[in-house]
Design goal:
With 310 residues, this protein is of the alpha/beta class. 27% of the residues lie in helices and 24% in strands. It has ten helices and 14 strands. The protein has helices at residues 11-14, 17-25, 53-61, 66-75, 91-100, 113-128, 205-210, 213-217, 235-242, 282-289, and strands at residues 35-39, 45-49, 81-85, 105-109, 134-137, 140-141, 146-152, 164-166, 176-183, 194-199, 221-227, 246-253, 256-260, 275-279. The strands form three sheets. The chain has an eight-stranded mixed beta sheet. It has a four-stranded mixed beta sheet with strand order 6-9-7-8, with no helix packed on it. Strands 1-2 form a two-stranded antiparallel ribbon. Strand 1 (35-39) and strand 2 (45-49) form a beta hairpin. Helix 2 (17-25) runs antiparallel to helix 3 (53-61). The relative contact order is 0.14.
Length: 310
């Protein structure tokens, strides 16, 4: 979907029209069962399903969700420890791995077995390319240990990122339910201190944060980037603010990131999803995120090297 009113959300297509054309042609192509490996702007390969909307967006546009992509790129430093909760096939996991570098660590959580299989294949590719700082967990993070029901609706083939945890059996025709292990981030080995925690779990974000209660209370997580479709204040925003975090609503236009006060964020786009940054170091965060332009190569042209003249 590339409606004019949404173009400000998609600089990767505005600045690179050929990508927009390929995306528009997607509707005329039979993609059932097809997979493709593409190279991401930070140099790592990523295998995706072409029938998956996120996967095809990555293949066509080379980036997905430029707002969150740019935010993570700017906030993660070499040596950082990052947790990616709701890793999907590893798009942001790969970015975190490159930014954190050899001295850093990325812990990725993805509970759906089909999605995890792709994530595992991608991580193996990165290890072959000497990026070996990623640790995978086929588990759903929540506020308790045990088992939970992951519901993948009938549109799962078209968007593998829509599977969500539910305490009830699915009632939607064609919906699939899968029993998955649950864990708390507080009890995950290696996550005793995190520089950045990214959460995108289709409405289960408050439960993930409750399962990190000790980490938050101890100030053991510097930055949290999380999706939240609810109006402010919400369950998730209340948890992080009560723990002493400063909250910034994340947005973008064609020229880069926009930092908005939560009370002023108003109506936000549904796709790819509205996100917040909760931080214990707001001065550092604003210093990193305020400069205009795009630092991730492939989103916009602002930092592309110019050809030498003469």
């Amino acid at each position: 979907r590339l409606l004019p009113g949404r173009l400000a959300d998609k600089p990767q297509y505005v600045f690179h029209p050929s990508r927009a054309l390929r995306r528009l042609m997607h509707g005329f192509t039979d993609t059932a069962g097809r997979r493709e490996v593409t190279e991401l702007p930070w140099g790592l390969p990523l295998e995706v399903r072409i029938s998956d909307s996120i996967g095809f967006s990555i293949v066509a546009g080379r980036v997905f969700d430029p707002c969150v992509t740019e935010t993570l790129y700017r906030l993660i430093d070499p040596g950082d420890r990052v947790a990616d909760v709701g890793a999907n096939v590893g798009y942001l996991t790969s970015l975190a791995a490159v930014r954190a570098g050899r001295d850093g660590q990325v812990i990725a959580f993805e509970p759906h077995p089909q999605v995890y299989e792709l994530l595992e294949r991608n991580a193996a590719r990165w290890r072959n390319g000497a990026v070996d700082n990623v640790e995978l967990h086929r588990v759903a993070l929540s506020d308790r240990r045990g088992e939970g029901t992951l519901v993948a609706g009938p549109s799962f083939e078209g968007n593998m990122g829509l599977a969500s945890l539910s305490s009830d059996q699915p009632t939607t025709t064609g919906a699939e339910s899968i029993t998955v292990p649950l864990a708390r981030l507080d009890e995950t080995p290696g996550a005793e201190r995190l520089d950045l925690l990214k959460i995108d779990v289709e409405g289960h974000e408050p439960d993930v944060l409750r399962g990190a209660e000790r980490l938050l209370a101890n100030g053991a997580v510097r930055d949290i980037v999380f999706e939240d479709h609810d109006e402010y204040p919400s369950a998730a925003t209340s948890i992080v603010e009560a723990a002493g975090y400063e909250l910034i609503s994340l947005d973008n236009d064609l020229r880069g990131l926009l930092l908005v006060a939560p009370k002023d964020r108003g109506k936000v786009r549904e796709w790819p999803g509205p996100s917040y940054l909760a931080t214990l170091d707001p001065e550092r965060a604003r210093q990193r995120l305020r400069p205009r332009g795009w630092q991730v190569r492939g989103i916009g042209p602002s930092l592309w090297p110019r050809r030498a003249r003469g």
